[in-house]
Amino acid sequence: MQLIYNYLGCLDTVNIVSTIVRLVLAVVIGGVIGLERGARNRPAGFRTHMLVCVGACLAMLTNEFVYENISQMSDPTRLGAQVITGVGFLGVGTILVTGRHRIRGLTTAAGLWASACTGLAIGIGFYSGAITAAILIFVALAFFPAIENRILVRSRTLELYVELDSLKSIRTLLDYLHNCEVGVIDTHFNSSAFVSGSVGLHLSLKIQKNSRAQLLKNIEKQEGVLLIEEL
To answer: What is the pTM of this model?
Structure first.
């Protein structure tokens, strides 16, 4: 028993054993988080999350090594703060604003940031926090989208992007929504759609309960509607 306690105690300081354990744990946790993103064909997947987590872990290990072996006047959290800033720039590269003003990649960027924070926790030896966070992050990425979709389906607010063949068709569509007693909260044009010869329109609607699917089908059938997408 004493041998086990001595072995676990060596994981709290920077040595060859703790270094290997922390870096391997960072590989496993970063890889697990990245697997979910990779399965969904996101820009940052398995290898990216793994490298971010390992890099953050190594930065924190280096900081702790400097503090313990070179100078205790140094700040043991300084490199960790720089990692969080650097990963913020990396995350920006995964965020894309489409021509329909739809933002993609925010979840992947957040996953990278969370993976880096997990790596920092591993690097400093906060194993319980890192493992617990990794489990929660994976659950949030893998299972919460289904819950989110069920909530959105029941929502009475509907955000749409619609492309129509002319300005006249917009008037027809708005009249149809008014006749259906659908509240139009906000509308604005997408100027980039004019280049392709169509008219892009963003709509924020207040709909009746459980009418979402049928309303989308009815709008799609309206004259002049070329494309409809829920945002």
So the answer is: 0.69
